[in-house]
Write a structure and sequence with these properties.
Number of helices: 19
CATH architecture of one domain: 2-Layer Sandwich
Radius of gyration: 27 Å
Bound molecules: dioxothiomolybdenum(VI) ion
Structural class: alpha+beta
Shape: globular
Oligomer: single chain
CATH class of one domain: Alpha Beta
Largest sheet: 7 strands, mixed
Length: 750
């Protein structure tokens, strides 16, 4: 059944309440199992061998010593692997950009450093790892290119579009001329380095080889349906013979959107050996799975003396691989956030000898907004206008690029509430004018914005004979709180307490859902859960009226409603049948399954976005150049907040990561070898508790009946957007020094 729900309203005691995670106990007691933790009898372990050159081909591979290790069962290479599909389309997954996806063990060609070239399969992972160290490879090396700056002259538009990617709007007016004649001008280049996701859980796949070659796969993934389709197509297997499970994910942030090579290798080994195989990557190896692209962004802003924008030029160059054109929305945000009729934006890619970049928390948004929000701060300083005031003067009440109204936009309220809470009115205008002991103090602010989306999603609701409600869908919970918020929605649909509801997800046998990404899951799957429960509710009312010896027998179902876990007459709540009684007495199925689709025709008439305002205070030690983010206040307008506790955690997580993006995170490439040098948590500097200041999150009330029927915009990504700019602007205010190249490390501040 397909449903386009309208008029479904969320109400009830659970939604909106800061309830604890329903899976919290399972997680902290270790009962929640991750992809590498499922016990499987007679399991073999794979360890991956990676290329040490960035471009060229394998000439010889000597496996003799590795094979001689007792306990090594087999070694997969490009000359020993199962047959795979030749057709590029079969390799495309739900998140594939234009181009040809990487095919592990395809042939002798090396396309990037750390490319998987062999899988050692052994009785234990230690043996496999040891044997991997004994593989001898000789290469014929070719010159490689990994440096975006060196090769920026090769920049060109992406070859084609990707679902979810909006090319920058077409140029409007003569932006260069308008810039030249503007009273106030700034023109600068901003850069961001390669960054890696570094989720806590390593990428892993456990493939259980069952009767008749059926595969049960425990995979670290943001979408079991994505892994499932990929394995079926690439290996030419019947979909029915594959089941992918991923009940828990230890963080992913985009790194598990696409099927990663450990999945391919584990399946390839299982099919070759007809045995169960597990492949777990090391932290170092996970740096080979995709990354936030490196970008160079030129922004030129022209304004009148009052700071009103006359010209916006935003040119972006991003890195991609030689085989796929990775694309994300980087340049579009500048004119979405600020009203300006004369503008020119572009987004070009430079193919390099690297693995394809990959979506990472707020892909495109985190980078583009860093640049525009720093540029606006520069403009404000030059025009002698307060940074918040200049944003209000250029505030976009409509999406000027598409000439659409916003479905809702409480950004002004975000500015007002966060600035009030932060104490922004006490800020001095001049840089270097605030001190705390020997430290310079700086206050900076920025805007955040992210898309609010609804995707098709399937769900099934079952009232079990014991009266429990079980709702299932193939979506994921990547740590965001999906289990919890879906439990709240389902519980309220029938007025049940939370502990009478079970949510099942992360299983490809369940009703279809896309990857958990883009911050769309709460709104999309939430709508599906809500709509399916509402449909089941109608069925339950009908059954209650049909049931013999029921107090509701013969009552028209239109006069019945479900309240507090029971069916009752709308005007006479004393005549009532508990759902648990109905379930116990009813013979047969009490279930409803549906695919729930968005009202795209209605939605297309509106621009749909989540907004935030970020205010940051930094303390800069002038002797050492060290920056500490002392406090931050973020106000978020994201429609309805299903659970203020899990919501706050999402935003806090984004703010913490924003600190990393601003101050420390950077994957450095050795240009001689074309290899990442700091692929470990010792040298890739993630922010830790000791780096945290006092962070506060405010949610601004916002109603939105367009974005999806439950009015939920999603929170997974908005928390990081704008944070790096707020911090960089605060560093400028503290020191008078403008650092445009992320991360703002001490050598750049000194
Ligand atoms: Mo998100 S980067 O869409 O997982």
């Amino acid at each position: 059944m397909i449903i386009f729900p309208k008029n479904v309203t969320l109400s009830g005691p659970q939604v909106g309440k800061p309830v604890n995670r329903v899976d919290g106990l399972a997680k902290v007691t270790g009962q929640a199992k991750y992809a590498a933790e499922f016990a499987v009898p007679d399991l073999l372990y794979g360890f991956v061998v990676l290329s040490t050159i960035a471009r060229g081909r394998i000439v010889t591979m000597d496996l003799t010593a590795a094979k001689a290790v007792p306990g090594v069962v087999d070694i997969l290479t490009h000359s020993h692997r199962p047959r795979t599909s030749w057709w590029t389309l079969k390799w495309k997954d739900q998140d594939a950009p234009p181009g040809s996806p990487f095919r592990p063990l395809q042939d002798e060609k090396i396309l990037f450093s750390d490319q998987p070239i062999a899988l050692i399969v052994a009785r234990t992972s230690e043996l496999a790892r040891h044997a991997a160290s004994l593989v001898q490879v000789t290469y014929e090396e070719q010159p490689h290119a990994t440096d975006l700056r060196t090769h920026r002259s090769r920049a060109r538009p992406p070859s084609s579009l990707k679902f979810g990617f909006s090319p920058p709007p077409k140029p409007r007016g003569d932006a260069d001329e308008a810039y030249r004649t503007s009273a106030v001008q700034i023109d600068a280049e901003y850069s961001s380095p390669v960054e890696h996701h570094n989720a806590l859980e390593m990428h892993a796949s456990t493939v259980v080889y069952g009767d008749g070659g059926a595969l049960t796969i425990y995979d670290k993934t943001q979408g079991v349906t994505n892994s499932h389709g990929y394995v079926a197509r690439v290996f030419g297997l019947a979909k029915k013979k594959i089941r992918v499970l991923s009940p828990f994910v230890g963080g992913a942030f985009g790194s598990a959107l696409r099927p990663q090579y450990q999945l391919f290798l584990a399946v390839a080994a299982a099919l070759t050996l007809k045995r169960s195989v597990r492949v777990v990557l090391t932290r170092q190896q996970t740096f080979g799975l995709g990354h936030r692209p490196e970008t160079l962004q030129r922004i030129a802003l022209g304004a009148d003396a009052g700071g009103r924008l006359q010209a916006v030029i935003h040119e972006v160059v991003g890195s991609t691989s030689r085989f796929e054109d990775y694309v994300e929305n980087v340049a579009n945000w500048s004119t979405l956030l600020y009203r300006c009729e004369t503008a020119r934006q572009s987004y070009d890619v430079v193919p390099l000898d690297i693995f394809t970049p990959l979506d990472m928390r707020a892909p495109g948004g985190a980078l583009g907004v860093f640049a525009i929000e720093t540029a606006i701060d520069e403009l404000a300083h030059k025009a002698g206008i307060d940074p918040l005031e200049i944003r209000l003067r250029n505030y976009a009440d409509r999406d000027g690029d598409n000439d659409l109204p916003f479905s809702s936009k409480e950004l002004k309220a975000c500015y007002a509430q966060a600035s009030e809470r932060f104490g922004w009115s006490r800020r001095s205008f001049e840089p270097r004018s605030m001190k705390d002991g020997h430290r310079r103090v700086g206050w900076g602010m920025a805007t955040g914005v992210w898309e609010a989306m609804q995707m098709p999603a399937g769900a099934k609701a079952v009232l079990q004979r014991d009266g429990r409600l079980v709702v299932s869908t193939a979506t994921a919970d990547i740590g965001t709180g999906t289990y919890t918020v879906m439990s709240q929605i389902a519980a309220d649909a029938f007025g049940l307490p939370l502990d009478r509801v079970t949510i099942e997800l992360g299983d490809s046998d369940l009703p279809f859902a896309l990857v958990e990404g883009g911050s769309w899951t709460a709104g999309s799957v939430g709508t599906a859960v809500m709509a399916v429960c509402a449909k089941l509710g109608k069925t339950l009312c009908k059954k209650a009226s049909e049931l013999a010896r029921s107090p509701l027998n013969g009552v028209s179902e239109r006069d019945l409603e479900i309240v507090d876990g029971g069916v009752q007459i709308k005007r006479d709540p004393t005549r009532r049948l508990l759902l648990s009684e109905l379930a116990a007495r009813y013979e047969g199925e009490l279930e409803m399954k549906a695919m729930v689709l968005p009202h795209m025709l209605d939605q297309r008439k509106f621009a749909r976005y989540t907004h935030s305002a970020v205010f940051a205070e930094v303390h800069v030690d002038e002797d050492f150049g060290t920056v500490r983010v002392n406090r931050m206040v973020t106000a978020v307008a994201a429609g309805r907040i299903l659970n203020p506790k899990t919501a706050r955690s999402q935003i806090l997580g984004g703010m913490v990561w924003g600190v990393g993006m601003a101050l420390s995170e950077e994957t450095v490439t050795d240009r001689h070898f074309g290899r990442y040098m700091n692929h470990s948590l010792a040298e890739y500097h993630l922010p830790v508790h000791a780096d945290m200041g006092d962070f506060e999150v405010l949610f601004v009330p916002e109603e939105d009946g367009i974005v999806n029927p439950i009015g939920v915009k999603g929170l997974g990504e908005i928390g990081i957007v704008g944070v790096a700019a707020a911090i960089s602007n605060a560093v400028f205010h503290a020191t008078g020094k403008r650092v445009r190249d992320l991360p703002i490390t001490l050598d750049k501040v000194m």
